């Protein structure tokens, strides 16, 4: 088997694992906590629950499947076939898991239940969105908006849910809606955290009179490249080589030691960055 084929099989398997684990964790949050407490989970899963609470008929998983049909048509048009088929797999796993999970998690305090459900649902969504697919629903809309307009996925979830909860006031008790709002806020925060936790990097700007020696130390001790930005001191008027480099969280302390071992008077400026695309970091993600 060639290396390219082996790599492709691994990539497909890894994506299917992410989709399966994420969908099952999300389904546990919905079926084991949200539904027993009467919460609206947000997104199309929340819309399917609202329809289920009000009209009954089909199971929550089946309602979710029916609502996804027009969204998958949009995904077929605006996103790739790879995304379509991965998302179809994720949606089927989520639909089946919601209907088949037999247990509930006995949390008697509504606030604690909302927090626990939000963590599970957000963790599940953040996990499967690391793949090249989704679990359907608002994920399809969120990814289209993220790809086209750089709208943060978690933020889109929250605003969509505000509209959904607005419609819920005519059907559900206001306390349940307020607990559901807390749940949706936790989902948006946890989903964004899971999406960024593997990509978060530190961009470091270093200003020193020994920039060449520092750049050499960065390469030798951290095996990390750097870039010179040419600036001029505002007070002295002297030209300086300003170093810019990007490291992960674990390398930051080593970088600090490497810099100050060369120049104890250096300026060391650290900035969080949540997505670095390029050699040695993340590859561009195309849906």
Q: Which terms summarize this structure?
A:
single chain, 287 residues, alpha+beta, 2 domains
Give the topology, please:
Elements: H1 3-37, H2 43-55, H3 60-78, H4 81-100, H5 110-128, H6 138-149, H7 153-168, H8 174-196, E1 201-207, H9 211-222, E2 227-232, E3 239-247, H10 252-262, E4 267-273
Helix pairs in contact: 1-4, 1-5, 2-3, 2-7, 3-4, 3-6, 5-8, 6-7, 7-8, 9-10
Which term fits the overall shape?
elongated
In N-to-C order, the SSE pattern is HHHHHHHHEHEEHE
Cα radius of gyration in angstroms:
24 Å
In the predicted model, the low-confidence regions spanning at least 5 consecutive residues are none
Domain module tally: 2
Profile the largest sheet. 4 strands, antiparallel
Count of β-strands:
4
What this model shows, in words?
Helices cover 63% and strands 10% of the residues. 39% of the residues are buried. It has helices at residues 3-37, 43-55, 60-78, 81-100, 110-128, 138-149, 153-168, 174-196, 211-222, 252-262; strands at 201-207, 227-232, 239-247, 267-273. Strand 2 and strand 3 (239-247) form a beta hairpin. The longest helix is centred in the first third of the chain and has 35 residues, at 3-37.
Summarize the structure.
This protein has 287 residues and is an alpha+beta fold. It has helices at residues 3-37, 43-55, 60-78, 81-100, 110-128, 138-149, 153-168, 174-196, 211-222, 252-262; strands at residues 201-207, 227-232, 239-247, 267-273.
């Amino acid at each position: 088997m060639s290396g390219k084929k082996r790599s492709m099989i691994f990539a497909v398997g890894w994506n299917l694992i992410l989709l399966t684990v994420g969908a099952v964790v999300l389904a546990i949050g919905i079926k084991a906590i949200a539904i027993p407490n009467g919460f609206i989970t947000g997104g199309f899963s929340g819309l399917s629950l609202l329809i289920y609470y009000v009209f009954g008929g089909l199971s929550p998983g089946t309602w979710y499947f029916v609502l996804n049909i027009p969204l998958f048509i949009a995904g077929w048009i605006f996103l790739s076939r790879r995304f379509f088929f991965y998302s179809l797999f994720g949606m089927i796993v989520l639909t089946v898991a919601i209907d088949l999970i037999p247990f509930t998690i006995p949390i008697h305090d509504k606030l604690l239940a909302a927090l626990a459900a939000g963590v599970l649902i957000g963790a599940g969504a953040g996990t499967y969105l690391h793949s090249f697919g989704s679990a359907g629903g608002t994920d399809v809309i969120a990814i289209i908006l993220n790809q086209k307009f750089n709208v943060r996925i978690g933020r889109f979830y929250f605003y969509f849910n505000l509209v959904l909860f607005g419609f819920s006031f005519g059907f559900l008790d206001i306390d349940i809606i307020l607990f559901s709002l807390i749940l949706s806020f936790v989902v948006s925060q946890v989903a964004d955290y899971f999406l960024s936790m593997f990509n978060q990097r530190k961009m470091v700007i270093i200003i020193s009179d020994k920039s060449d020696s520092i750049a050499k130390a960065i390469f030798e001790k951290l095996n990390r490249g750097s870039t010179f930005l040419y600036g001029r001191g505002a007070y002295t008027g002297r030209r300086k080589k300003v170093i810019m480099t990007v490291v992960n969280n674990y390398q930051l302390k080593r970088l600090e030691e490497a810099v100050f071992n060369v120049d104890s008077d250096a300026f060391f400026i650290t900035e969080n960055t949540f997505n670095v695309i390029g050699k040695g970091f993340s590859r561009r993600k195309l849906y």
